[in-house]
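Sequence, please.
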């Protein structure tokens, strides 16, 4: 077999320290922009070129770990003679039989059965069921080939990633741990690092930039800083943002829609929460029914992550909703970064909620963020801040088409979304409309009312 020379990006000194360490299992705790992705993907490509079978595992398909990592792999593929990139399988095949496949931790069972030589678990601290995924799925996959694994992540509290870090730190044979702040990357601008540190709460900076294991739960949002109003304030511009989850599993995320506004003194007010677990038809129907109840003056924002783009396409295509305003909300940052504007308001005593039966669940989630089991309400609140900072006016079908056509992932997923709508066709139920006909698939589901907290 002919030898092949592969030129990978130049690593800085702390990256070289990780790469050259002989440990079989490595736990790398590093600050933002330290270079975790470049190091991990570069190592996977190098091993695949030598014939090894490698996995790159991200928390979810929509996560930056997956999307940005895939773009890095595309760059490598374009510069590797004989390499073949398969978009559908998310795999890079090398001429010698080795490969790199991108996977997600969303479904643990999808990580069973394969025999691999090397696995990189990116943003491992942000994988909810990391312990079970490692012990029940990934570790057995490394058995027959005596494979290796790297856990690389910015820390996120004292979770299983922290346990692995301590295990490696306590001289467990075959394990090694590393901890590097963002400043260990010599290619980052020192002045910029100082400025971003001033823009963050102290504990957030210690976690995100200094790569320290800190306990953020209860530190970012404090209950006693949230004011409770007896009535909705007058003269406020309201928006409602939606974080959608199409499932009814009791362990899964919720669909949540928060109606939020800003008072004249800058206080952010949450006036209403709609929250529940619903499959596709009910979740989209909830948005439509709630938007109608809110009225034409309340903009509705829907995060366009994964299948959620199909929801806003469906809403915009219904002529009965033509008078309402829907805005797609792309997600470009992690949960903590998106929540920073709300955290700042809370610290200033400018976060308030209108008294209602939903208050306790909302405050419980807020106080335990970002280490709570569910964060759908905080995500929706963060998205509402984006909406309130934008000019008024919504997107129509043409704008959504322009947005989705510019994103290759949406083009790839469009046939799947179309099949889903064909499989479960429906018209959105509106007041005064009859949906009792035998051809209507919702007629079999019976009467339904969204769970509205008042």
């Amino acid at each position: 077999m002919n030898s092949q020379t592969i030129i990978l990006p130049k690593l800085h000194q702390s990256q070289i320290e990780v790469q050259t360490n002989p440990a079989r299992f490595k736990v790398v705790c590093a600050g933002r922009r330290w270079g975790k992705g470049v190091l991990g993907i570069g190592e996977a490509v190098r091993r695949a070129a030598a014939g090894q079978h490698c996995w790159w595992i991200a928390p979810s398909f929509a996560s930056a770990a997956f999307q940005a990592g895939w773009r890095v792999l595309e760059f490598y593929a374009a510069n590797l003679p004989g390499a073949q990139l398969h978009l559908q399988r998310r795999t890079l095949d090398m001429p010698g039989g080795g490969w790199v496949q991108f996977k997600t931790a969303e479904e643990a069972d999808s990580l069973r059965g394969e025999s691999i030589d090397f696995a990189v678990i990116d943003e491992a601290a942000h994988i909810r069921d990391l312990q079970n995924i490692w012990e029940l799925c990934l570790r057995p996959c490394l058995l027959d080939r005596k494979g290796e694994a790297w856990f690389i992540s910015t820390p996120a509290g004292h979770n299983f990633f922290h346990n692995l870090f301590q295990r490696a730190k306590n001289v467990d044979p075959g394990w090694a741990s590393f901890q590097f702040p963002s400043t260990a990357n010599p290619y980052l601008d020192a002045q910029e690092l100082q400025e971003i540190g001033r823009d963050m709460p102290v504990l957030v900076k210690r976690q995100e930039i200094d790569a320290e294991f800190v306990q953020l739960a209860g530190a970012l949002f404090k209950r006693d800083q949230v004011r409770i109003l007896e009535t909705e304030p007058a003269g406020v511009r309201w928006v409602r943002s939606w974080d959608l989850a199409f499932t009814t599993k009791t362990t899964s995320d919720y669909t949540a829609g928060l109606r939020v506004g800003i008072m004249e003194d800058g206080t952010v007010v949450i006036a209403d929460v709609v929250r529940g677990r619903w499959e596709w038809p009910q979740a989209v129907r909830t948005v439509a029914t709630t938007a109608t109840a809110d009225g034409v003056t309340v903009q509705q924002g829907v995060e366009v992550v994964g299948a959620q783009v199909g929801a806003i396409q469906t809403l915009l295509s219904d002529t009965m909703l033509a008078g309402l305003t829907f805005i797609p909300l792309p997600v470009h940052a992690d949960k903590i970064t998106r929540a920073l504007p709300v955290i700042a308001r809370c610290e200033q005593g400018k976060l308030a909620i209108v008294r209602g039966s939903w208050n306790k669940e909302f405050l419980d989630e807020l106080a335990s963020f970002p280490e709570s089991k569910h964060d759908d309400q905080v995500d929706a609140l963060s998205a509402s801040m984006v909406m309130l900072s934008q000019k008024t006016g919504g997107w129509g079908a043409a704008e959504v088409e322009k947005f989705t056509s510019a994103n290759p992932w949406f083009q790839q997923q469009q046939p799947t979304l179309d099949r889903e709508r064909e499989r479960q066709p429906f018209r959105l139920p509106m007041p005064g409309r009859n949906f009792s006909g035998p051809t209507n698939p919702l007629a079999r589901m019976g009467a339904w009312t969204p769970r509205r907290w008042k």
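The first strand starts at residue 25 and ends at 30.
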